[in-house]
Amino acid sequence: MGKKIVNNIVDQTIDLDKNPEIGQVETALKDKVREFRYLVYSNYKIVYYINRKPKLIVIANVFDTRQNPRKIKEAY
User: Fold this and answer.
1) What number is the average pLDDT over the span 19-30?
2) β-strand partners of 45
């Protein structure tokens, strides 16, 4: 990824600390123990989950949506 794309992806996540549930629930991963959510930047899904005990937001994956959508399940 180019530096500009990476910076823009990071910028998309800036407000997560204030409102961690801003992202939509990732329905492709609804069968997992954690509730995965995502934000979108351009062709990328920023997949994350909220770890409530230490109050952390964990970016689990940056998924290129031009790939086969079934591949998102393979990462987890």
Assistant:
1) 94
2) 40, 63
